Amino acid sequence: xxxxxxxxxxxxxxxxxxxxxxxxxxxxxxxxxxxxxxxxxxxxxxxxxxxxxxxxxxx
Length: 59
Fold this sequence. Notes:
This protein is 47% helix and 0% strand. By secondary structure, it is an all-alpha fold. The protein has a domain at 29-59. The longest helix is centred in the last third of the chain and has 22 residues, at 31-52.
């Protein structure tokens, strides 16, 4: 949240809690599908990281 406040040029604000209003549980995806998605989105993720000047460590 601090990065968001900084990006928006807002003063830092400490929220007392971050309640999870929409908890869920999802089954894991198969490794083959995960690798297909990583391969497909890799160039787009790289472009986003270069544009923003930060790494997200997607894998």
